[in-house]
């Protein structure tokens, strides 16, 4: 098992890991984390706490997620890891021809075209039904209170809200977007740091979801409001798309990395990218984290995994290769053999026949949850359903209009999805949940956090605080300004196009909770690049 009592934190920005015994919640907003902890103290379990935290995040971090988004979860309970895929499909009435007839050569980022069926409310209800202890309506009370009475806007949240407003005021000029501005910029601007922001409509919507166990969103008053607005303003989403939606319980997928099992949700999510990269990297021995060879091989492995995913990943049942083929040891060897001393232009192999919030919870009973939800690209589609506060996601933006591509747009199809929760076990015993949100940074963050933990012995906060890199495309690699400059220069000499970035949040925002199974002590960490925190007792 991982040992925590001797690890140092050479990369700490401001804090060390948090230790506790009875329960823990780690996420990107202190108010949401506190909501989850309050539920634990009321007798709820880790699943209840995750639901309460997720619902609160739709209020206190609307720049990254919302009621109209998707969710995925990995739940450890009674010695078994369960996976929940609550991503929604495209509307049945949409098609490539229909989009092209509207004058588009690719899927736009905003408006009704990229809107898919939201899965988050269904995820909350399903998790509560199967594993929760407290009544569902009890879990949404903190979120409802924050929405109704308001909360003070935090610094990182304010910055991203302002970015979105400045962008949207110049680009979202169609009248269909007016309700975004009425909801999220009622004073004609984004809220400032410390300013109280509330949304009574959001509170009413959460109350409706709470009272009906989520039914009103898919088969009730909220579903009617969503489908009516879609019909009136040229959308493809219809009431039957909502009525027929159900989240899916799935078997998590994994690879063994140096004796530890790293778990992800199977496609349509991109967790397989992290697993493929780790499968390639485990063929090497790494003696130092801050070495040119370590970073070079990490970057090259991620490239190979990403180009495979771009070619093959969509809904699992529609893929033309299997997950098992992509994670096969012999295929990893073939991909590993392509890595040389110079940066490569990656190409997909032939195996034989990405705005988001992340949270982690744990309780004294041994339950642990890795949960992620998102509207995508910040506020999502820019479509807000009037009178509800519901900002709809734009996950359909990841579809392609190429008929021959595996991820081609079709009605009723789930797209290649960026949000991924992670989980770590050893010898069928839980170590704990981890995640790094942020578009296509996510699997790259997973690889870096896992290697920081297992290969280099960093405790959770140090594993998160360590300077990050992100492969973007071709030979372009972004690195944080804290990244060692002498290593960046050496990587450039290997042919990598290294670009230093000043914005920390482009490198993701992570959370970790590990359990020391000898003592039962929980060790948690929260991203130093944002407003995150760990609450515990």
Automatic annotation (TrEMBL):
Signal peptide: none annotated. This is Gamma-glutamyltransferase family protein.
């Amino acid at each position: 098992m991982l040992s925590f009592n001797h690890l140092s934190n050479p990369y700490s920005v401001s804090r060390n890991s948090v230790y506790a015994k009875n329960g823990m919640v780690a996420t990107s907003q202190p108010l949401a984390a506190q909501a989850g902890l309050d539920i634990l103290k009321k007798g709820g379990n880790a699943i209840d706490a995750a639901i309460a935290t997720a619902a609160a995040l739709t209020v206190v971090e609307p720049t990254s997620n919302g009621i109209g988004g998707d969710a995925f979860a990995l739940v450890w309970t009674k010695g078994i890891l369960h996976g929940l895929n609550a991503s929604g499909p495209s509307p049945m009435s949409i098609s490539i021809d229909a989009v092209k007839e509207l004058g588009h050569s690719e899927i736009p980022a905003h408006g009704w075209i990229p809107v898919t069926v939201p899965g988050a409310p269904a995820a909350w209800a399903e998790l509560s039904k199967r594993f929760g202890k407290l009544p569902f309506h009890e879990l949404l009370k903190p979120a409802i209170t924050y929405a109704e009475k308001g909360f003070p806007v935090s610094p990182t949240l304010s910055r991203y809200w302002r970015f979105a407003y400045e962008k949207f005021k110049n680009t979202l000029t169609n009248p269909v977007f007016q309700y975004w501005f009425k909801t999220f910029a009622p004073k004609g601007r984004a809220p400032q740091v410390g300013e109280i922001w509330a949304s009574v409509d959001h509170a009413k919507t959460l109350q409706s979801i709470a009272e009906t166990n989520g039914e009103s969103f898919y088969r009730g008053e909220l579903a009617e409001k969503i489908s009516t607005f879609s019909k009136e303003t040229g959308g493809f989403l219809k009431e039957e798309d909502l009525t027929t939606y159900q989240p899916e319980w799935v078997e998590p997928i994994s690879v063994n990395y140096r004796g530890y099992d790293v778990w992800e949700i199977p496609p349509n999510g991109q967790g397989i990218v992290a697993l493929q990269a780790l499968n390639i990297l485990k063929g090497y021995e790494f003696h130092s984290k801050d070495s040119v060879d370590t970073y070079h091989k990490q970057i090259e492995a991620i490239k190979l995994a990403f180009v495979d995913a771009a070619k093959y990943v969509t809904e699992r049942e529609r893929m033309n290769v299997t997950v098992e083929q992509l994670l096969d040891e012999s295929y990893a060897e073939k991909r590993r053999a392509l890595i040389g001393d110079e940066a490569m232009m990656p190409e997909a192999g032939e195996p034989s026949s990405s705005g988001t919030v992340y949270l982690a919870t744990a309780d004294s009973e041994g339950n642990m949850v890795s949960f992620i939800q998102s509207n995508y690209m910040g506020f999502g589609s820019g479509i807000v359903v009037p009178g509800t506060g519901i900002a709809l996601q734009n996950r359909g933006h990841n579809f392609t209009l190429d008929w021959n591509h595996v991820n081609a747009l079709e009605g009723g199809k789930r797209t290649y999805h960026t949000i991924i929760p992670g989980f770590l076990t050893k010898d069928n015993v839980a170590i704990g949940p981890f995640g790094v949100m942020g578009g296509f940074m996510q699997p790259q963050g997973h690889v870096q956090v896992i290697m920081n933990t297992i290969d280099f012995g960093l405790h959770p906060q140090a594993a998160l605080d360590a300077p990050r890199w992100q492969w973007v495309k071709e030979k372009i690699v972004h690195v944080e300004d804290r990244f060692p400059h002498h290593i960046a220069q050496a990587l450039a000499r290997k042919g990598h196009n290294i670009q230093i970035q000043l914005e920390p949040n482009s490198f993701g925002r992570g959370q970790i909770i590990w359990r020391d199974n000898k003592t039962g002590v929980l060790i948690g960490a929260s991203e130093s690049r944002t407003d995150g925190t760990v609450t515990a007792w």
